[in-house]
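Entry 0007
Protein: 4'-phosphopantetheinyl transferase superfamily protein
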Amino acid sequence: MWDKNMRKDIVVYKNAQKIELHFLKQSQLSDSQQQHFIELLTKDELERVNGFRTSEMKQHALWVRASLRQVLSDYSQRHNIAEFEPNKWKFDKLKYGKPYIKNQPSRFQHIEFNLSHSGEWLLIGITHRKPDNQPFAFGVDIERERSNTNVMTIAKRYFSELELKQLQALACEKEQRQRFFDLWACKESFIKATGKGLATDLTSFSYDFFGVQEPSGFFKVPVIVNNDPLSKKTSWVCYLGKLDDVFRFALSVKYTGSNHGYFPIPDE
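Output (structure tokens):
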């Protein structure tokens, strides 16, 4: 079991930039905490928060946005990038919706992040680079296993031939359900890393679990990208972990072997 509010540091390859994974678990917010979080958000963010139907959904959206700001400020300070207050961050989105920091706190180091939330858990991945290096292609996802999801119907539509074959070969429905959500977390992290989201064909890449040992904690799953013209120069890597019996998380990164470590996010 993982405790709430923890951090895991990942060095994907030797000499590559470290990625921090921050795990936060939501608890009931007091009135003073809610007011403090409200003061951190922009007018546009507050409008989005207030657009949710229920008070629980509003509180969760407020917590996610405020937590991201606090984690980014803490990261910037710990890595001696800049002293930057949580209410100062400004965000924008790429063409397919991937968020990025619009007002970098330093002209010498640029911070990259990606986030995912499910249930009471929030996962934030963060790293930084020199501004003359290209943005990193990395994505994170956290998934809750659900008992009412028709896993085979969805898998037949969205999984690759290899993934579906390995899924159907598992001995029982319980194992198949667990593998389905493992794969879904991996695939979500991949399409978030590319910056193209669901514009990416989910059958165009595969996660190969054959021979993968699944210890408790965190382990690597090989990634195969179909028809990748850069496959000889670049490689994808994915890490999958379990928070508990219900929640799992994934990190996907594309690596070039260059000094700064990661494949640039495509412009289109």
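Curator remark: Residues 92 and 164 are 36 Å apart (CA to CA). The domain at 27-128 is CATH 3.90.470.20 (Ribosomal Protein L22; Chain A).
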